[in-house]
Amino acid sequence: MQRVEVCAGKDCKRSGGGPRLEKLIQQVVEEEGLSNTTIERCYCQGECGYGPNILVDDKLINNVRGRDAVLQALGLAQEA
Ligand code: FES
């Protein structure tokens, strides 16, 4: 079970996080068939300047922009 929490704070939303990022993560999760991943929202994590931020199993990950960043955050990035 993997738990993803997307910061729904104002600054993260403004930098492309929040609901938009949630949608992208949802898409990736479906495409990758990650059936035991849950996606929730969380409050501001106090690293607003480094957003958009998400938590993956309580680990804070900054600057999650775009699909590649999501794959990496979920531990699915391809080795170069
Ligand atoms: S708004 Fe996301 S960490 Fe503060």
UniProtKB/TrEMBL annotation:
InterPro entries: Thioredoxin-like_sf. CDD domains: TRX_Fd_family. Gene3D superfamilies: Glutaredoxin (3.40.30.10). This is (2Fe-2S) ferredoxin domain-containing protein. The lineage of its organism: Eukaryota, Sar, Stramenopiles, Ochrophyta, Bacillariophyta.
